[in-house]
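Progress against Task 2.4 (sequence-to-structure conversion) is shown through the following example record, which the project officer requested during the mid-term review.
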Amino acid sequence: MPQVFHRSSNTIAKVSLIGGPVSVAFIVWACLVFQRSSYGTGAGEVRVQKVPFSHEHHVGVLGIDCRYCHTSVENSSYAGLPPTKTCMNCHSQIWVGSDMLAPVRDSYRDNRSLEWQRVYNTPGFVYFDHSIHIHKGVGCTTCHGQIDEMPLTYQQPSLLMEWCLDCHRNPEPNLRPQSEIFNVKWHPPPDQRERGAGLAREYGLRTTEFLTTCSVCHR
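Structure tokens generated for the chain above:
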């Protein structure tokens, strides 16, 4: 009976038995690496905006409070974006002829909102409430980084679930007094562990078991 398969088929079969699983494992590994990289998470990526707004200038240099622009951050799940009128409170007096601010003037004149590229964008299946975090002692820079040092705004953390869980499992290091929530220069004191534990009791934080329950974030 003539040989049906070529002699090289044995070699190909052996290589396939080893190469198949290795290839699958490599693809899975590459996907996991990409997912956790800045390319996958968007961390550190500066979004191109029509108006290159500088938090470094407005917050770091001029000392404008976060709540002046993000008016709903204390009582809403959304921090909110300022209406053009807020920008024009100052820019009807200063930099009135700047080409860079032409979109702002056009927006105000035509009564049309400026279109901003969203920087922080959690998935639709994740529920996040700004107000509850603020009232429980989490400051702006805890999640947004040193926003007062950013000429152009970018997402600092990965926003991966593990990043959220790290804080929900051990929130004390990130808790601060209510008077310091919007202080972008605040840094944890040397005895933050003890102070954080006291603030957790003061704010009535729930147990770690509750804070890591799926339904807290996935509703």
